[in-house]
Amino acid sequence: MIIVCRLYGDSHPLESLTSLLSRKRITFTEASKQNFAPYKVGDTFGPTWWTCWFKVTLKIPESWRGKEVHLLWECDGEAMVWRDGQPVQGLTKEGEKTSYILSTCLKDEEPHSVTLYVEMACNGLFGAGQGSMIAGPDPNRKFSVQRAELVVFNRAVRELLTDFELLIDIVKVFSHRTMHDEALL
């Protein structure tokens, strides 16, 4: 649907994005004490089963006051957003969850400068199969972040999309009914 491209309005780049690649899973406390290197969106990292931590520094524009603001994060693997040392939300393209709500209606008293951490596992939502979920893992696969930016979220568009999805599902269910079934409705 063409309306999907209206889901996000204005966008704003992150203040900084740095990364730390680890061969094993490490805790937030361990990761946050390490030295992070600059990361450019689109650069690859990995391989499969490694973990990449990102330090995300952002500043929300003052002009976005009163708007719903999200961190848009599109990556190949499974990601977890950490805020104030706590895991707050998972992100994955496979699960169609690619944004984290920073504010539902930005107010002056809310912090406009925020530092988040994003922990990304170098595997898909259902493993790391070569071409399918049930295939053996590809040990040399590389991963990347395709989008990392601040965006204004258009809640009305999301609600309209939900309505469309519901209507489409209703049509699918009722399109298989007979005329007798229709009369009963």
From TrEMBL:
GO BP term (any one): oligosaccharide catabolic process
Molecular-function annotations in GO: alpha-mannosidase activity
Occurrences of domain Alpha-mannosidase Ams1-like N-terminal (ranges): 23-151
Protein origin, superkingdom: Eukaryota
A Pfam family reported for this protein in Swiss-Prot or TrEMBL: Ams1-like_1st
Name the UniProt record assigns to this protein: Alpha-mannosidase 2C1-like
Species assigned in the record: Seriola lalandi dorsalis
